[in-house]
Amino acid sequence: MSGFKSIIKNEKIVFMLIFIAITGIIIQSAVFYIDGDVMWHYKAGEYIVNNGYIPKTDIFSWQQNLNWIAHEWLYDVILYILYSNCGIIAAKILLWIFIIVPIYISVIYNHKKIINQYLFVLINFIIWVFLSKNSFCVRPSEISVIFLMLSSILVVEDVKYKKILFFIYIVLAVNFHGASIASVVILPVLGLIADIISFIVKNDYRNMLSSIKEHLAMALIGFIGSLLNPYGIHIYQYALMISGKLTNYIFELFPMQFKLGGAVILCALILMLGSAKSFREMDKFTVRKYIIMFAFLCLGIKTKRIMFQAANLIILYAYPYIEEFLCNNLGEKVKKTVLSDKLPKYINSLFFIALIFCFIYFFKADFLHNESYVDFALKGNEDDIYKDYRNAVMYIKENNVEGNVFTTFNMSGYYILNDIKVFIDTRCDPYMHPFSDNNSLIDYFNIFDKGMPLYEQWKELDHKYNFKYALIDLGELNIVEVAYGLKKDGKTVLFETEKVILFELD
């Protein structure tokens, strides 16, 4: 408690927290978007709350005998409870919160090391502008990065009750976002590698055995905690199974892999460019930071979703070294600027007023006329982008169109929100081996291979799954050829607008 009071009394920290809060509101207002994934997450949460259990089989597709690992079930439940009771304002405010929380963690962790608060907020602002396109709504990845940061601090530092806290974070992480669990569980292994490197470089092995025992104990605790989910060890099956074929079409879903060797090599190269003496003077805690940060950075450069975690770890661990580099290598003027950390009088008061103004300005309309999440999602944004899809849904329900309906990958979340059974959707695992005796997602993506005309390949898909209707999103340009082919073959058009077309195939 005394530590918290000292932070609040520190004007520099207060300035950074307020500035980051303002920046977060502005970014949130610019990037907020209703994502199709959140739509099926909402319906999954509704199903769990209403039925009192977590499904292990598919609930959204008309295909039969599909298994499903709802590895984000806790996220689904909390999202549904908040969104159904608080409306769209909950989604917008939660996005703001999850934009600023990772940076707040970095501020609190580094508050004794930050020399210049202006430079800190500037670097954070640049990084978050770069990342903002990946953070347009509160998804499980926005939550899991917080558990990753907190867990990595436990591995890096000697924290009181670290094993208990690590266990708690692991249990929460695996139930909020089971697909990310491998990235959290592996942290003690990275810590162990860092300590071994430190012992070898310093040629001092006195505490090596105790360090190995400590990290192995953390790894075991983390692994046990990761099994406390509805699917047990099978959660790792999901985290590691995404096939290379699928990642050809979904960029963010690269196979789970940790390039530890690459991380160690990158670390060694950076240290070689610096001073060997400086490295020998580093304590084990600093080496742990380097190894953890570089392990995620190596993969983060390649994988879009992991880049989010890699960038936050850079903010968390690298900032003091960035400041030191600027001071030592860019001349006296830069050094003087960096070290100049005085705050103008009343700046925090003025920024606090600006924070209140921004909050009212950007959230006022939502508080005055707060729509339900479903109403907002069905209406779309100011351009009413979902108008055509909403009209298609009304036609489908009024005319009892059901059964084997072909639906496209990206729009299925919208149909699920409207209680329409789909062919496939972005959950992926129900439609892939080894989870189900089904490979319809890969079959779907295979029609886009260039070996033969798209429509001819789609007809092979139709022959396998015996579609009764085809609901085609004309906004997905790569599927438009199918609509042209169906028209040419004289298939009955039941509903058509500029963005969506519904065919009867029988």
Question: Summed up, what is this model?
Answer:
With 506 residues, the chain is mostly helical.
3D structure, described in words:
Helix 2 (11-31) runs parallel beside helix 20, helix 10 runs antiparallel to helix 11 (208-226) and helix 10 (187-202) crosses helix 16. This protein is 64% helix and 4% strand. Strands 1-2-4-3 form a 4-stranded mixed sheet, with helices on both faces. The chain starts with a helix and ends with a strand. The protein is globular, with a radius of gyration of 26 Å. The protein contains 26 helices and 4 strands. By secondary structure, the chain is mainly α. The longest helix is centred in the first third of the chain and has 23 residues, at 88-110.
Count of DSSP H/I helices: 26
Count the strands? 4
**What is the gyration radius calculated from CA atoms?**
26 Å
**Residues in helix, %:** 55-70%
Distance between the termini: 70 Å
Proportion of beta-strand residues: under 5%
On the 0-100 scale, what is the average pLDDT? 84
Along the chain, the helix and strand elements come as HHHHHHHHHHHHHHHHHHHHHHEHHHEHEE
Structural class label: mainly alpha
